[in-house]
Amino acid sequence: MPSTTPLPTPLPPTMVITPWADPVVEAVGFEVRRAYVEMFWLGVIGPTSTWLLRRLVTGFDHFPDGYELDLAETASALGLSLTHGTQSPFGKALNRCVMFGAAHQLGGGLAVRRQLPPLSSRHLRRLPEH
Question: Residue 87 above 70 pLDDT?
Fold first, then answer.
């Protein structure tokens, strides 16, 4: 099972992003740029992590096997700072993706899901009734 261990601090200047192949989730999941993720996952992982995840997956449109991501450039493009402390907004967003299973550490980089599974009942109970 992939690790949910937080990413190291300070973050490196670049990170290799590869697709996370998971046939089980891909059979029942929702592509991260679809409305389901915005309507349901956003309330779980947060808006910053949702936008970051969408940007990471969009990279696979051009580089299907993976790519090297410049972290400072990506943070800036999302309107975030990339500081080296534990309170870095960009670092927090990356770690939330790992903590909630949207990504996991792989070597010196991240494997990222292209699809997210349906929310668990535990997360569904936390959402507003509507």
Answer: yes
